[in-house]
TrEMBL record:
SUPFAM superfamilies, alphabetized: Ribose/Galactose isomerase RpiB/AlsB
InterPro entries according to UniProt: RpiB, RpiB_LacA_LacB, RpiB_LacA_LacB_sf
NCBIfam families in the record: PRK05571.1, rpiB, rpiB_lacA_lacB
Protein name: Putative sugar phosphate isomerase YwlF
Amino acid sequence: MRIAIASDHAAVDLKTTLREWLIDEGHEVADLGPDGHDSVDYPDFGYRLAEVVAEGTAERGIALCGSGIGISISVNRHPGVRCALVSEPLSAALAREHNDANVVALGARLTGIDMAKACVTAFLQTDFAGGRHQRRVDKLSNPPASKETA
């Protein structure tokens, strides 16, 4: 699978560990940065990751920052991307199965490496269920024009 990964300075070490592990698992990984621990702005890397996933250069994305919150918000600004902030494997699997999430976000200050790997594994191995979930996912990229819900 083609996977893009990006972080901010707080999550560089987790990003590096996950990148190497994913390559060892046989995935093609595009590391979108940053390369060091100097302070950077997570939106810059979140937007870049979202664009790469939305355009199809990567099938899935992994977004990392200190808490996972900031970068997940920036990734979700792109209408073609659905990013789920997770902290355990069940949420990662449900994000795929029910929401067709194409990016998963994790907090490097909150999630250990073994749990991060378990979350990424669940995220990558779970298929979207489709069916009744599809119309809901469609609405995420195309919200209704009025305040009424269908």
